[in-house]
Amino acid sequence: MDQRKIKYFFSVIEHGNLSSAAQSLRVSQPTLSRQIQAIEQEFQIPLFVRGGRGMLLTEAGKQLHEGLQSIERQLRLLKTGVTAVSVEPAGEVAFGIPPSPRGLIAVPLIKQYSNDYPRVAIRLVEETSGQLRDLVANGILDLAITNTTEPTHGTVSQILGREGLLLVGPVGARLSMRKDTPIRALGDLPLILTMRPNSLRLMVEDRLGVHGMTANVRFEANTLPLMTDLVTAGLGYTVLPMCGVRELLKLKRVSASPISDLFVTWLSARPKSRPLGVAAERFHDILWAFSRKLIAKGVWHDA
């Protein structure tokens, strides 16, 4: 495989047929067809299913595509990193953030980095902590915010800060930020939680299990806006970090109470098997400085 073949392979996947892919690449269709056949011969397995719906990836093709995405991106980052050593960083940074801290961190962090390094393009991904960890380990992302509940397979982590988890309910529940809720109280409430194996779900269930209780999960939802929409509609209670409901509390759309001795510790995760490029290292520096500011303001706590 060389970069030209990778480019041809990706183009066929993107367009779903040889004709459109050849047109976008400005090569003849027979030439492109020969290149795809050469790749399949190299791996000695069909990579596409050819049919009336165009060209679809086989399972082997999907696996090759996933691996090549990481390789192709690392080649681009290496090229820009080498040229950026003595000049202003350029190229791309891919950063992942979970839904809860997104509202607190993402915009000010990206704004500062973009102002400091205008030649760097930023790709943002919002997923759960576990998914983000895997994307970092597989080379799809440079950096991500995760939490200590997730295993750090394939990544190296640094603690950013810690914050308490809240029981979040409808306004009519009259929960108070000045009064803690014991974890046992959650066992008697209809809960709206993320799906397993999400770390927040497991954290709640494990802590209730210590007291011989099980979570009464009435609704499962894997997006923060949907969870809080169900709460504001009076359908149940959820558990979220403070950073996930700050704005809703200000607008008095929900009520909340700190859960006794239940915290989430946020981490920055980077790949274990390869160094970061210059642009990504600068991004990490700004993320770290931003976390120090949050701790100084009392938004997060040092862990």
Please render the helix and strand layout as text.
Layout: H1 3-15, H2 18-25, H3 29-43, E1 48-51, E2 54-57, H4 59-84, E3 91-97, H5 99-116, E4 120-126, H6 129-137, E5 143-147, E6 155-170, E7 191-193, H7 199-210, E8 217-220, H8 224-232, E9 238-241, H9 242-250, E10 254-271, H10 278-296
Structural account:
The protein has 303 residues and is α/β, with parallel strands linked by helices. It folds into three domains: 69 residues, Orthogonal Bundle (Arc Repressor Mutant, subunit A), CATH 1.10.10; 120 residues, Periplasmic binding protein-like II (D-Maltodextrin-Binding Protein, domain 2); 103 residues, Periplasmic binding protein-like II (D-Maltodextrin-Binding Protein, domain 2). The strands form three sheets. It has a six-stranded mixed β-sheet with strand order 4-3-5-10-6-9, sandwiched between helices. A two-stranded antiparallel ribbon has the order 1-2. Strands 7-8 form a two-stranded parallel sheet. Helix 7 links the parallel strand 7 and strand 8. Helix 2 packs across helix 3 and helix 5 packs across helix 10. It is globular.
Query: Which strands sit side by side, in order, in the main sheet?
Result: 4-3-5-10-6-9
**Run of helices and strands:** HHHEEHEHEHEEEHEHEHEH
Computed CA radius of gyration, to the nearest angstrom: 23 Å
Largest sheet: 6 strands, mixed
Q: What are the segments in which pLDDT stays under 50 over at least 5 consecutive residues? A: none
Q: Into which percent range does the helicity of residues fall?
A: 40-55%
Remind me, CATH topology of the largest domain?
A: D-Maltodextrin-Binding Protein, domain 2
- Based on helices, strands and strand pairing, what is the structural class? alpha/beta
Our measurement of the CA-to-CA distance between the termini, rounded to an integer number of angstroms, reads: 46 Å
Instruction: Give the mean pLDDT.
Output: 90
Number of helices: 10
* Strand segment tally: 10
| CATH architectural name of the largest domain | 3-Layer(aba) Sandwich
